[in-house]
Request: fold
Amino acid sequence: MNGLTIHSPQCAGAILDGVARRVIPLSHAELIAVNRECARMRQKPVQRRMTHKWQELDKYKATPTKGARRALWGLYGLVLVLVAWVRG
Reply:
């Protein structure tokens, strides 16, 4: 291994330093809210499929491409192919 050895205390220290910098402690009110949410989720039965959420996700769908726009993109692609063929 290239003469480079890392001992486990060094690894643990590096990991702990990285974690300590990124962790934002929760306030008492936030911790209570998290515990309530966990308890609420434990009470609900697990739903395999979330079909009732599809209506909420519809606002993120892509708009369908209209025929004229599709034809222009096709024409643009054809021009690119012809230019590439002419340049050889």
